[in-house]
Amino acid sequence: MKYRRLGKTGLKVSVVGVGTWQFGGEWGRTYTQPEVDQILGKAKELGINLIDTAECYGDHLSESFIGKAIQHDRQDWIVATKFGHKFHGHLNRTDHWSPQEVLKQLENSLRALRTDYIDIYQFHSGSNEMFDQDELWTLLDKQVQAGKIRHLGISIGSNDNLYQTEASTRVNSEVIQVVYNRLDRVPEERVFPSCQKQDLGVLARVPLASGYLSGNYKPGVEFTENDVRHRHERADLDKKLQLVEEIKRTEVPEGVNMAQWALAWCLKHPAVTSVIPGCKDVAQTEANAKAAELASEDHPQAWRD
């Protein structure tokens, strides 16, 4: 495993983390505690130390699985979670952005994670109007001073949300999370330069484009109704998968796993600190971790254009 400095936080994070939306049950299957224990246990064994979750991945369900899995070695992990959305049921959420509501979410997250501090607490895909609440950031600063939060972050909803990115330093946010992958390079244009200028850590979410860059899906694939990808527009989905076929044929070196290539591709951008792909099982955790080897500077292959 390789490690990088997460911007001005100074934290050393593994270049491959574990994304955990799937633990909330919205990616086609449900999880048990032993399964999560095995996934995170293997992740630690492989040198991964970063977990990303959110209060709305289930009603703190993902956080609860994680909390139980790491309660005996909490100090070995960097846990990032998010706030702003209340889970009511499968793919059903409402926004909760008032300072009082966020404080309640924070306390519930700490309880679910079985910890007295969160390493990175992130504003989760909220509007600019909700972002511009001085009372909210004052509240969060007080929680940092109280030791319940180590560092603040912003998970921007739009890949080109320069407004919130540019305001990071003003609100004491030190980390930006953004969708970035071979199919979506929008952050390269404005967001990444701003992150580099401010020395912000960058977490690339959806680095496998919702699994499409795994190379496992062909145009025409059908997802079950309890899989979040079932909601993706058919025409857009097939267009993406056709592009994936072309990328696999023209860009991925022969004999290289496409998912690992796609993760390494993200990590080659100098602004990106870590990728946080989801992993459905131990085997996928192992496969994701191998991307760190491909992303190393001394690897002979050229991974980016």
UniProtKB/TrEMBL annotation:
<dbReference type="GO" id="GO:0016491">
    <property type="term" value="F:oxidoreductase activity"/>
</dbReference>
<keyword id="KW-0560">Oxidoreductase</keyword>
<dbReference type="InterPro" id="IPR023210">
    <property type="entry name" value="NADP_OxRdtase_dom"/>
</dbReference>
<dbReference type="InterPro" id="IPR036812">
    <property type="entry name" value="NAD(P)_OxRdtase_dom_sf"/>
</dbReference>
<protein>
    <submittedName>
        <fullName>Aldo/keto reductase</fullName>
        <ecNumber>1.1.1.-</ecNumber>
    </submittedName>
</protein>
<dbReference type="Pfam" id="PF00248">
    <property type="entry name" value="Aldo_ket_red"/>
</dbReference>
<dbReference type="InterPro" id="IPR050523">
    <property type="entry name" value="AKR_Detox_Biosynth"/>
</dbReference>
<feature type="domain" description="NADP-dependent oxidoreductase">
    <location>
        <begin position="16"/>
        <end position="298"/>
    </location>
</feature>
